[in-house]
Amino acid sequence: MNNTKSADKQPRTGPNGKPVRPFIMPTSIAGKLGVWKYLILRRVTQLSTLVLFFGSAHWAWNFNEQPIISGNLSSSMLLGFIPLADPFAVLQILMTQNSLLTEVLTGALIVLTFYFIVGGRVWCSWVCPVNMITDLAGKIRKKLNIQNAVQLSRKFRYIMLALALVLSALSGVAAFEWISPISIFHREIIFGLGTGWAFLLGIFILDTFILKDGWCGYLCPLGAFYSIVGKFSFLRISFDSPSCTHCIECTKVCPEPQVLDLKLATHKGYISAGECTNCGRCIGVCPEDSLHFDLKWWIARNQQNNNLQIPSANEAENLTKKDPGRKAA
């Protein structure tokens, strides 16, 4: 009887033989800041972007007598000479067969190149203001333990992406831009509250009571567009397979848990799915420190070096035959 109780208390071990440890929030302020650092940085980035637009529009913030940033999140001018444009908005306009200024096309190329490097859906978690609403809804949902009222495939957002482009071509206007909650949120903050708050409230209700991460994870065509870009981007969440115990703490906090395919990540050395938002939540809660931000080529180089240092089974057997005192790896 005592032996049975003792066996029940044995800690569960991971595939690497190490005990599986749950994530425990540190009690010190420094420890908590370590867990929350990417959340804090994301909020600073999102709020700073809105403040820059607001300050340039209402407080005449300028650089060399030019507004620091003018326009909106779809099309803007930085420091008076750097054009910036939403590539997806530009793509919709191109589908309408309307011509665009070279300046706008250049701005779209600049933004597309930036997100191609740092990870497409970095836009979703680090810049998009709607993310603050959906994160709040997710927090409330978790606290109240609300279950999904409907089921939907995450691939549905790609249908929304295709639909936005088809409707743009048929209607002659950029379809998603007319109803984009991102543009609505930006206008409400910069130019004052209007009827757009009802749309934002709808997203909050959807994410809180109907479907977890409903807007960003299943419906937003802009997120789908950046998922395609993110599949080829350089900045990644690296994965150190030998240290991982498969505690699944990362999947509990990830807004896109399906991207945490640990078998595929073991093979590649990083989270390869384009749907990853590079939000950094998984990094903060990993008890074994197995996840980090890194560049794809650097991860591949380190993985290649590690493979060179580890002999194969045949090589280990040959070494043992040559030197009987050597243990096989």
What fraction strand? 5-15%
Molecular shape? globular
What are the secondary-structure elements, in order, as H or E? HHEEEEEHHHHHHHHHHEHHHEHH
The count of β-strands is 7
Largest sheet: 3 strands, antiparallel
Structural class: mainly alpha
Give the fraction of residues assigned to helices. Answer: 55-70%
Radius of gyration, taken over Cα atoms and rounded to an integer in Å: 24 Å
Quaternary state of this entry equals single chain
Distance between the termini: 39 Å
The average pLDDT value, as a whole number, equals 88
Poorly predicted runs of 5 or more residues: 308-329
Domain tally: 2
Count of alpha and pi helical runs: 17
Strand order of the largest sheet: 3-4-5
Structural summary, described in words:
- With about 325 residues, the protein is mainly alpha-helical.
- The chain has 2 domains: about 85-230, no CATH class; about 235-329, Alpha-Beta Plaits, CATH 3.30.70.
- The protein contains 17 helices and 7 strands.
- A 3-stranded antiparallel sheet has the order 3-4-5. The protein has a two-stranded antiparallel sheet with strand order 1-2. The protein has a two-stranded antiparallel sheet with strand order 6-7.
- Helix 6 runs parallel beside helix 10 (about 195-210).
- The two termini are about 40 Å apart.
